[in-house]
Amino acid sequence: MSGPFLTTARLDLWQPRTDDLADLFALTRDEETRRFLGGFAPSEADSFARLYRNAGSWALHGYGTFMVRLKGEGRIVANCGVFRSHRGFGAESGMDNVPEAGWIVHKDHWGQGVAREAMEAALAWFDATHGRQRIACMIDEGHAASDALAGKLGFVRYGTFQPDGGAAPLVLYERL
């Protein structure tokens, strides 16, 4: 793709490209940024897997997360959108084999409305293209900024999930 898939007033939203790996790795390896991403330090191989899972979501389902850049700039500042997920939490969790919303914003751009602007564009496009349907999301318990954003985007809390290994509980949301 030679240009952004979607644009907003401030942002260019791109489908994933192979040359996004270094920026995606930089986005997710920052300790503060990943504090609410399960707490583990991703390797470059983990970022490769994230990038290719996302590309697979686009190829198989026609949607995935966007690599978000400030308009006209090259560096990825966020990864936001709707992707196909299978978390392995069990059917009762409502998180397996469903469209899932997610957003990761580099700490340099926190508090600037980047996630909201990108997600509003991504959700509007998803609804127009795939029809309004249930979309799930999960947020680490205690992540106040993401909890607030989920509400602004129309998501409501429907449950929790406790991962193995003592990780923080996950709050489960859905937008119907």
Q: How would you portray this structure in words?
A:
Helices cover 30% and strands 29% of the residues. By secondary structure, the protein is an alpha+beta fold. A hairpin with a 5-residue loop joins β3 (65-70) and β4 (76-86). The longest helix has 18 residues, at 44-61. The model has no long low-confidence stretch (mean pLDDT 89).
Chain-wise SSE layout:
Elements: E1 6-7, E2 11-14, H1 21-29, H2 44-61, E3 65-70, E4 76-86, E5 96-105, H3 114-130, E6 135-140, H4 144-152, E7 156-161, E8 170-175
Antiparallel strand pairs: 1-2, 2-3, 3-4, 4-5, 6-8, 7-8
List the keywords.
176 residues, alpha+beta, five-stranded antiparallel β-sheet, three-stranded antiparallel β-sheet, 8 strands, globular
In short:
This protein is 30% helix and 29% strand.
| Overall pLDDT confidence | 89
**Which blocks of ≥5 consecutive residues have pLDDT under 50?**
none
Q: What share of residues is helical?
A: 25-40%
* Order of neighbouring strands in the sheet with most strands: 1-2-3-4-5
Count the beta strands.
8
Strand fraction: 25-35%
User: Which term fits the overall shape?
Assistant: globular
* Rg from alpha-carbon coordinates: 15 Å
Based on secondary structure, the structural category is: alpha+beta
Secondary-structure element sequence?
EEHHEEEHEHEE
- Please describe the biggest sheet, giving its number of strands, its sense, and whether it closes into a barrel: 5 strands, antiparallel
